[in-house]
Write a structure and sequence with these properties.
The complex is a heterodimer of chains A (865) and B (689).
Chain A: H1 4-8, H2 26-35, H3 43-48, H4 64-72, H5 75-102, H6 107-115, H7 127-137, H8 150-163, H9 165-176, H10 182-191, H11 195-204, H12 210-215, H13 217-226, H14 229-245, H15 247-261, H16 266-271, H17 273-282, H18 291-295, H19 309-313, H20 317-333, H21 345-357, H22 372-389, H23 394-409, E1 425-429, E2 436-437, E3 446-454, H24 477-480, H25 488-494, H26 499-503, H27 505-509, H28 515-518, H29 539-544, E4 548-551, H30 552-564, H31 577-583, H32 586-596, E5 605-614, H33 619-637, E6 649-653, E7 656-659, E8 665-667, H34 668-675, H35 679-687, H36 693-716, E9 726-729, E10 734-736, H37 761-766, H38 773-791, H39 793-804, H40 817-823, H41 831-847, H42 849-862
Antiparallel strand pairs in A: 1-3, 2-3, 3-5, 5-7, 6-7, 8-9, 9-10
Helix pairs in contact in A: 4-5, 5-7, 5-8, 5-9, 5-11, 10-11, 11-14, 13-14, 13-15, 14-15, 15-17, 22-23, 33-39, 35-36, 36-38, 38-41
Chain B: H1 2-15, H2 24-32, H3 45-49, H4 56-65, H5 68-88, H6 94-114, H7 120-127, H8 130-149, H9 154-168, H10 180-185, H11 189-197, H12 199-217, H13 227-234, H14 238-267, H15 276-289, H16 293-308, H17 312-316, E1 319-321, E2 364-366, H18 367-378, H19 385-403, H20 405-411, E3 417-418, E4 441-442, H21 443-457, H22 465-485, H23 493-509, H24 511-515, H25 520-541, H26 545-557, H27 559-574, H28 580-589, H29 591-611, H30 618-627, E5 633-636, H31 649-670, H32 673-676, H33 679-688
Antiparallel strand pairs in B: 1-2, 3-4
Classes of the chains: A mainly alpha (865), B mainly alpha (689).
Biased composition (Low complexity) (chain A): 10-50, 355-366
Membrane topology (chain A): Peripheral membrane protein
Domain PI3K/PI4K catalytic (chain A): 584-850
Chain lengths: 865, 689
């Protein structure tokens, strides 16, 4: 039970309640959170917020917030929030001071000071300093804030301090307890009306692990954009600090800010704090400051092999011409022969200019150097998607995609990375011929594979040197030329553009396909016979001089055997190019691409893939990803063996983004279309007969993933569940993709898919029929999963709730979204009742006519089986 | 309008220059050709000279008219003129630079025209004087280099390239042009590369630069170390190589487009249906007009790049949307000899566009596709000497490509599918394939199609043996790669088989006439060995097991051709004579084919007899084939998957010498005086001063 205490309490909005007992009882803290109608965000709501608070609020400590907002209306709360914030700050400080007396360490704030450049409210300073300390947290544009109420604030603060010290200490104890995690912090930040608490949490963010906070970045930024000043002020220092530290965090923030601001009205959007912060980030004023910057400023300058500096400053012809002529002047001073063959280094940057410089976003007057390469890279990927959408056929799209990517390859490697990947790396090459256009009716999402070279820190590690495409082959031209009169020195000079390369013996040894060229020994090239008498195969026969006989039947048999060895590849179909690409086992693909890549020999070479979506809003996908990940960790924590696969989502704007593809998985539609088998038969074909180990484990995987996704589909009301949106991986897991219709939205509002989740007879067949053990296991898993999820409901609900703020997303359409979501957790039911519920859901879904109807509908309209 | 008038006026003035009333520049030329030092009386003589508009014709004719002894007298003055020309190139005043460049051009031409027979050293002596030649040429090349690489006017750069082209082509045989020795020492290779790597300069001067490079590479190619060869072979800067590829691509695309336009013009006409025969005659005429000559230079450049530079292979597959130049008819076109060489308008440069054009009808293309299309046009008609040469060069380039690992890799890349519309000769017995039906396939299919097309369409009296050999060798190289890498290409091999069998048939029926000129046994051996490849290694690269059955079916079906061939080679090899040995090689090679025929023919006959069927269907024959494999034993032949690598040195040297000579003549003709004395230039610079 001690676990659940902090878990349930966060949404409590009644901080003012001086419930003297430091450990809040479960009933008191959880009930208000449930009854909250919706999160208040502006002035008028302030009055409402204390109201649902528990009735036991003592009249003596009338909450100052409530009083003032009632009286002053629009302008009032703003000013008073200011007052209250500082006041609360003082209070907190006071309380903290007392605490420090007790336990000399005062752990968190000390930790803050070391990391945060923004002045964290230190425990030591007296109230007046603390109030002042809050000030710098504010952003520059808020200079016009009235200073006036400062005097009054002190008074009110003192008064409050006198009134509820016990409550504050209780809150503080919670905040400083080990159990206070990011989830709780976010929750308090969202629900608390106390500016002081908000400011405190804002500072407290510094002490959490970056990864933990990053998970909630969409929530943080959405609150920053759509909630009131205080929350924003509390969050901003942290965001700014992190932006200074990391390029990828900066870009992540900029993209999310852009995306989540987009639902605002144009006029307000322009002046909104979100837009301002985004501009600030993109203007690159948030360069690393302090000792870090002093330590390694030179490392940050060479961002791109082709210096982007040039086109950021003035991408005019003139600079290039001048630099070129400078180059030639210096060159022609030396002997002409000594010039390298590949002298026009200047031009390589010119091309980059031509393609990327011109289409930069209009408000970037001077795109910052620090962020430029990555932004340009993303922009060109999006540009490709836009252009592909205009082409009529898949085949043309594919060809165009390949050609566009091959042009993009010219600019790689560069200081760019794949935001969906976890490790630090530089992108070295895009194997353009492997890219495929995905199935979509009118948009042109496409999947690319990306060769990366891992590195320690992509900001400071040097960008890998470009290796030309065909460097993997054995040499021909120079070496075979009869003494070309070049001194060794000159030759070395001529390769100066790839300095690392010559030292890299490995590159030359990786030459397995060079075999063909080697096979003919040099002497035989000049043999008078047109067909050399020697061959690898026949050397033995030549030595023995005895003819070798082979049976024609053997040749024929070998042919059919070898053809039979690769049965499970899908046949190439120009209308569905992705099927073949996705069916190929990932390891196989990696090996194949690695063999063909000039960078493949490097030990830090990795292959990644990403789906580029252009014209699609991925914010809902991101929300779903967060919920899925939260549920996954909940189930892991509760040891429920449900299997789901949250795939990473990168939101770039409100209509573009990237998705991390699920590897080794094809859609059920593709399975059915290409194999022409039922799902069970396909399982048998892929994994073996029903009694084999392989089949059983595949079946178990199927059941565990089915249960996981059934719950997800039910809780999130995931719709549009046709077979194209359900993947099957090589181990038998199903994976649901495309969360375009969740919560309150469903496709075309046709009212199809009324069942809780998709459970077709085919699924049940794979599980061994409705009476089998595995099917019971499936239901049991669902029950366990639901119980576990219910236990941590707040953690899930919170993610969704915060994102509803200011959002126009279809999934938040209507007023009952949150209520519906909470109801689906069925907090009030006993476990027995829950079991009944699960049985009902499963039965209902199995019998559901609408699932079949919807599949039929999809088949008719989109040709999806 | 006024410009035209002005031009006319200028022309009139020049033409009237031979009349007694001479323009000042002519008088000054006369002074130079007098004994005295012209600067003696007028210290500012040279300064003034380069301010005058050059009269090229007069200067050249004057140089030509000088005879032997006079040369001695005026040599000092000519040396001085050359010296001052070179000096003037460094002037700030651009008019002087222009005039100096044109004067130099006239000097080179005039001196060479006069002294066709004279040795290179005499010419150098006459122009620069022996002792100073090295210094003068060094200065000249450095000036040109900095002009080409500098920020100056584009027309100035163009003029520099014209001067260089003029210099390179003054002799018919480039290797006899001794002055080029200085161009070797003072390399302008880097300047050429820089032009090619820069988008805008490539658009304007790319064509000239590429042609110049191709010619320079061929200077004393086989006799000495040519630094341009060395340098070209090691270029690895991708923008530059791409630039070179783009220039070639554009020139070939333009040719293809013109051909297509002409074809449509001739076919789409009112009488087209009635007079298809007459129409096709007109096509032939139209073809004549579409000169291949200017493209020889570009093709040579492509060859040198592919042959020498292994990095260039990647450029071949560098795809970009097909450039549609039809939209801009106003731009000059390289194919007619009257237009200047620098042709490709910069606006069409795709690399220039950050966003590739959005026309959905545009097919994505690459240099290789364009080249294949071009080859298909050129190979249609090989009667004309130039076309024969072009076709040969195309096949040589394809040979180099087929030997290259990387090229083979992308040719066979299953992910890179293209529709390649090859041009097919209209023939009586077949319809022109409808373009749209061509499926999208790996590029190697297009290469094979092209080879098959050539084999089928050139069985004529004037047999292009050399081209056939190359053709079959290219196929062989591709199959070797497929065998090695176990690539199962989904290609309709049947078309190839029947084309090859028909070729054997043709050789047989024209044995006597062909043997007079060619070693047909060599070709027959290559063809039979292709079949041997399929028979013994088919399991490694055939796409389906059915295709192996079909191979046997085809051999058995056409057994008469193989039987006749065997009889013929047996007959020749038993006689003594020059063909004894090559013929006996063919008899050995035929071993497996004959084994197959002898094995299956009786089986099929007995099957027919047993089932009382007079004519077996294909399916029935295949059935017989399938059920009788096991009793057939084949002999593994040696060296089937080996081939001789292409090497230019001994075999092709003569061809390339001739080719370069013809290109030189053509380029010289095209660097006309008109393009050198551009009024535009003068107009441009007159405003600067």
């Amino acid at each position: 039970m001690e676990d659940s205490e902090p878990d349930v309490s966060p949404p409590c909005s009644g901080q003012q309640s001086p419930s003297s007992s430091p450990s809040p009882s479960l009933s008191i803290s959880s009930s208000p959170s449930l009854s909250l109608p919706s999160t208040p965000s502006s002035g008028p709501h302030h009055s409402a917020s204390p109201a649902p608070g528990p009735a036991d609020t003592p009249p003596g400590s009338a909450p100052p917030l409530g009083v003032i907002s009632e009286g002053l209306g629009e302008l009032g709360p703003l000013i008073d929030a200011e007052v209250a914030q500082r006041a609360c700050q003082e209070v907190l400080q006071k309380v903290k001071l007392q605490q420090v007396d007790d336990e000399a360490t005062g752990p968190e704030p000390v930790a803050n000071e070391s990391t945060a450049p923004a002045p964290a409210p230190a425990p030591a300073p007296p109230p007046s300093t603390a109030a002042g300390a809050v000030k710098p947290l504010k952003i520059r544009e808020e200079d016009d804030d009235p200073e006036g109420p400062a005097a009054g604030s002190v008074k009110s603060a003192r008064r409050r301090q006198r009134h509820n010290p016990s409550k504050q200490s209780w809150l503080l104890r919670l905040f400083e307890s080990k159990l206070f995690d990011v989830s709780m912090a976010i929750s308090y930040l969202h629900n608390s009306k106390e500016p002081g608490v908000q400011a405190y949490i804002g500072n407290r963010l510094f002490s959490f692990r970056h990864d933990d906070v990053d998970f909630y970045l969409p929530q943080l930024l959405n609150m920053y954009i759509h909630m009131d000043e205080d929350v924003g002020d509390a969050i901003k220092p942290y965001v700014v600090h992190r932006c200074r530290q990391s390029i990828s965090f900066s870009l992540q923030c900029a993209w999310l800010l852009g995306a989540y601001s987009s639902d605002m009205h144009i006029s307000t959007q322009r002046h909104s704090r979100g837009t301002k912060l985004r501009k600030l980030i993109l203007s690159d004023e948030l360069k690393p400051s302090g000792p870090r910057a002093r330590r390694d400023p030179p490392a940050l300058t060479p961002f791109c092999p082709a210096p982007p500096t040039e086109h950021t400053l003035s991408p005019t012809k003139r600079t290039h011409q001048r630099s070129k002529s400078d180059a030639t002047v210096s060159i022609s001073l030396s002997s002409n022969l000594k010039r390298t063959a590949s002298n026009p280094k200047v031009e390589s940057s010119q091309d980059e200019d031509g393609s990327s410089g011109s289409d930069s976003v209009e408000f970037d007057v001077g795109p910052p150097v620090r962020l430029t390469p990555q932004r340009e890279f993303i922009k060109s990927l999006m540009g490709i998607g836009k252009r592909l959408a205009t082409l009529p056929t898949k085949e043309q799209k594919t060809q165009r995609l390949i050609s566009e990517l091959s042009l993009l390859n010219h600019k790689l490697p560069a200081r760019v990375w794949l935001p969906t990947a976890a490790s630090q790396h530089h992108i070295a090459r895009i194997p353009h011929t492997q890219a495929v256009v995905l199935n979509s009716k009118d948009k042109a999402p496409y999947l690319i594979y990306v060769e990366i070279l891992e590195c320690e820190n992509f900001e400071t590690s040097s960008v890998p040197v470009r290796i030309p495409e065909n460097r993997i082959r054995s040499t021909r031209s120079v070496e075979n030329l009869p003494d070309c009169g070049m001194t060794a020195e000159q030759r070395a000079g001529s390769f100066s553009t790839v300095p690392n390369y010559d030292n890299d013996d490995e590159a030359w040894s990786v030459d397995d396909i060079g075999e063909l060229q080697v096979e003919l020994p040099e002497i035989h090239t000049n043999s008078c016979d047109n067909i050399s008498q020697f061959s690898v195969d026949s050397i033995t026969s030549l030595e023995s001089k005895e003819p070798v006989f082979i049976a024609a039947g053997d040749i024929r048999r070998r042919l059919s055997e070898q053809l039979a060895q690769t049965p499970t590849t899908f046949k190439r179909d120009p209308e569905d190019p992705s099927a073949v690409a996705l069916k190929e086992p990932w390891e196989e693909k990696v090996r194949r691409i690695r063999e063909g890549s000039p960078y493949g020999h490097l030990p830090n070479w990795r292959l990644l893939s990403v789906i580029v979506k252009c014209g699609d809003d991925l914010r809902q996908e991101l929300l779903a990803f967060q919920v899925l990940q939260q549920l996954q960790s909940i189930w892991e924590q509760e040891r429920v063996p449900l299997w789901i696969k949250p795939y990473k989502i990168l939101v770039l704007s409100s209509d573009s983004g990237m998705i991390e593809p699920v590897v080794n998985a094809v859609s059920l539609h593709q399975v059915k279309k290409h194999s022409q088998l039922s799902l069970l038969d396909y399982f048998l074909q892929e994994h073996g007969s029903p009694t084999t180990e392989a089949f059983l484990s595949a079946q178990r995987n199927f059941v565990q993933s089915c249960a996981g996704y059934s719950l997800i589909c039910y809780l999130l009301q995931v719709k549009d569940r046709h077979n194209g949106n359900i993947l099957l991986d090589a181990e038998g897991h199903i994976i649901h993709i495309d969360f375009g219709f969740i919560l309150s939205s469903s496709p075309k509002n046709l009212g199809f898919e009324t069942s809780a989740f998709k459970l077709t007879a085919e699924f049940v067949d794979v599980m061994g029929g409705p009476d089998g053990d595995m099917f019971n296991y499936y239901k049991m898993l669902m029950l366990q999963g639901l119980i576990a999820a219910r236990k941590h409901m707040d953690k899930v609900v919170q993610i969704v709730e915060i994102m509803q703020q200011g959002s126009q997303l279809p999934c938040f359409h209507g007023s009952s979204t949150m209520r519906g979501l909470k109801e689906r957790f069925h907090m009030s039911l006993t476990e027995e009742q829950l079991q009944l519920l699960v049985d009902q859901l499963v039965d209902g879904s199995m019998r559901s006519l609408t699932t079949k109807l919807y599949d039929g509908f999809q088949y008719l309209t989109n040709g999806i089986m | 309008m006024s410009q035209v008038e002005k031009k006319a006026g200028l022309l009139r003035r020049t033409s009237s220059s031979k009349k007694p009333l001479k323009e000042k520049v002519v008088l000054m030329y006369d002074e130079i050709f007098a004994k005295e030092d012209p600067a003696k009386n007028n210290p500012r003589f040279w300064d003034e000279l380069f301010l005058m508009k050059v009269n090229l014709e007069y200067l050249e004719s004057k140089l030509e008219s000088v005879d032997g002894e006079e040369v001695q007298r005026i040599q000092d003055n000519i040396n001085s003129l050359f010296h001052h020309c070179v000096q003037a190139l460094g002037e700030e005043h651009q008019i002087k630079v222009v005039n100096a460049l044109q004067t130099l051009c006239a000097l080179f031409r005039g001196v060479h025209q006069k002294n066709k027979s004279a040795s290179g050293f005499d010419i150098i002596n006459m122009l620069m004087g022996f002792d100073k030649a090295e210094l003068r040429m060094k200065d000249l090349m450095e000036s040109l280099d900095s002009l080409l690489c500098g920020e100056g006017s584009e027309s100035l750069k163009s003029l520099c390239l014209k001067l260089l082209l003029c210099l390179v082509t003054v002799t018919d045989n480039i290797s006899q042009n001794t002055i080029l020795e200085y161009v070797m020492i003072n390399s302008i290779f880097e300047a050429i590369l820089q032009i090619l790597s820069d988008v805008s300069s490539r658009g304007q001067h790319g064509y000239d630069a590429v042609v110049l490079l191709a010619l320079l590479v061929n200077y004393r190619k086989y006799e000495s170390v040519n630094p341009y060869i060395v340098k070209l072979s090691i270029v690895d800067d991708e923008p530059t190589l791409d630039g070179m590829g783009m220039v070639v691509h554009q020139a070939l695309t333009e040719y293809n487009r013109q051909y297509k336009d002409k074809e449509e013009e001739n076919q789409g006409g009112f009488f087209s249906t009635l007079t298809s025969m007459v129409g096709s005659m007109f096509i032939a005429d139209a073809d004549e007009k579409l000169s291949v000559q200017t493209n020889e230079a570009i093709l040579l450049a492509l060859y040198e790049a592919v042959h020498l530079n292994r990095n260039f292979i990647t450029v071949l597959a560098q795809s970009h949307p097909e450039i549609d130049m039809a939209g801009s008819p106003a731009t000059p076109i390289p194919t007619t000899p009257t237009t200047p060489l620098g042709t490709t308008p910069p606006s069409l440069d795709m690399m220039n566009n950050p966003e590739l054009p959005l026309d959905p009808n545009l097919q994505t293309s690459n240099l290789l596709i364009t080249f294949l299309k071009y080859s298909s046009i050129v190979m249609q008609d090989t009667k004309d000497e130039h076309r024969l040469n072009s076709a040969r060069l195309c096949l040589i380039i394809l040979t180099c490509i087929a030997e290259d690992q990387y090229a083979d890799a992308f040719l066979h890349d299953d992910n890179m599918n293209f529709r390649v519309n090859l041009h097919r000769m209209p023939m009586r017995h077949r319809k022109k394939a409808v373009d749209k039906n061509i499926p999208s396939r790996p590029l190697v299919c297009a290469v094979l199609d092209l080879m098959v097309e050539f084999i089928v369409t050139h069985m004529m009296k004037d047999f292009p043996m050399d081209l056939y050999l190359r053709c079959v060798q290219i196929i062989h190289k591709l199959i070797c790669y497929q065998k090695k890498c176990r690539i199962r290409l989904h290609y309709t091999w049947r078309e190839l088989w029947s084309a090859l069998i028909n070729l054997l048939k043709f050789l047989l029926s024209n044995e006597t006439t062909l043997l007079a000129k060619h070693n047909i046994f060599h070709l027959a051996l290559l063809v039979v060995n292709l079949f041997n490849m399929f028979i013994t290694y088919g399991d490694t690269f055939l796409p389906t097991s059915n295709s192996y059955d079909e191979l046997y079916y085809e051999i058995v079906r056409m057994h008469q051709v193989f039987d006749n061939l065997y009889c013929m080679v047996l007959r020749v090899s038993t006689n003594t004579g020059q063909w004894k040995e090559p013929a006996s090689k063919v008899t050995h090679a035929l071993l497996n084919v004959r084994a197959i025929i002898n094995h299956f023919n009786p089986k099929i006959e007995s099957y027919a007899a047993v089932n009382h069927i007079s004519q077996l269907s294909e399916e029935q024959v295949l059935e017989v084939v399938r059920s009788n494999y096991d009793t057939l034993t084949l002999k593994l032949q040696d060296g089937l998957d080996q081939f001789e690598r292409y090497s230019e040195q001994p075999k092709e040297a003569a061809f390339f010498k001739e080719l370069v000579r013809s290109i030189s003549l053509n380029v010289r003709k095209n660097v006309s005086l008109n393009t050198l004395s551009q009024d535009v230039l003068l107009k441009e610079f007159s405003t600067i001063s």
